[in-house]
């Protein structure tokens, strides 16, 4: 029997769905009995990525769809958050701390930086007009001994 488990969730790009996404992923990974710090880190990166899709990818257009796929394999969590929105023209610039393409919304420009600090790996694929896919992974340190 494989110890791999996954869930996939799609929802409208509405700001009120950001908390739903965060709670859904947290509920799914709760089967690993994460520490509070691990759970908080996961919820934070999901919030950041989903908010980026809604605000930057779809420009708050609720007709857009955000999709989250979460996989658990052993002590590893993989989360993919994707949209079919406007995409990112300069990914290197977008990954710089404090950079925001929407300063009028008082955005902090720390979304990608937070994701990179809280996760072990963050891989972003994006192109103008083609949407964005953020793939993140994290080894759950609290479960490391069980799988090594």
Automatic annotation (TrEMBL):
Residues in Histidine kinase/HSP90-like ATPase domain copies: 37-142
EC number: 2.7.11.1
Matching Pfam families: HATPase_c_2 (PF13581)
Record field: catalytic activity: L-threonyl-[protein] + ATP = O-phospho-L-threonyl-[protein] + ADP + H(+); L-seryl-[protein] + ATP = O-phospho-L-seryl-[protein] + ADP + H(+)
Parts forming coiled coils: none
GO molecular function annotations of the record: protein serine/threonine kinase activity
Assigned keywords, A-Z: ATP-binding, Kinase, Nucleotide-binding, Serine/threonine-protein kinase, Sporulation, Transferase
SMART domains (UniProt xref): HATPase_c (SM00387)
The keyword Protein biosynthesis appears for this protein: no
InterPro entries: Anti-sigma-factor_SerPK (IPR050267), Anti-sigma_F (IPR010194), HATPase_C_sf (IPR036890), HATPase_dom (IPR003594)
Top class in the EC scheme: transferase
Recorded family membership: Belongs to the anti-sigma-factor family.
NCBIfam families in alphabetical order: spIIAB
HAMAP family linked: Anti_sigma_F
Cited function: Binds to sigma F and blocks its ability to form an RNA polymerase holoenzyme (E-sigma F). Phosphorylates SpoIIAA on a serine residue. This phosphorylation may enable SpoIIAA to act as an anti-anti-sigma factor that counteracts SpoIIAB and thus releases sigma F from inhibition.
Name of protein: Anti-sigma F factor
Organism this protein belongs to: Paenibacillus chartarius
Gene designation per UniProt: spoIIAB
């Amino acid at each position: 029997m494989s110890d791999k488990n996954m869930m996939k969730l799609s929802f409208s790009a509405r700001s009120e769905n950001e908390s739903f996404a965060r709670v859904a992923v947290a509920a799914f990974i709760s089967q690993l009995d994460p520490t509070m710090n691990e759970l908080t880190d996961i919820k934070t990166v999901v919030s950041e990525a989903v908010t980026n899709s809604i605000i930057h990818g779809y420009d708050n257009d609720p007709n857009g769809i955000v999709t989250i796929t979460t996989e658990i394999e052993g002590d590893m969590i993989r989360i993919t958050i994707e949209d079919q929105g406007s995409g990112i023209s300069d990914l290197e610039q977008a990954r710089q701390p404090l950079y925001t393409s929407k300063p009028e919304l008082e955005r902090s420009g720390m979304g990608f930086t937070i994701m990179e600090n809280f996760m072990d790996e963050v891989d972003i694929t994006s192109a103008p007009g083609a949407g964005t896919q953020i793939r993140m992974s994290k080894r759950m340190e609290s479960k490391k001994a069980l799988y090594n």
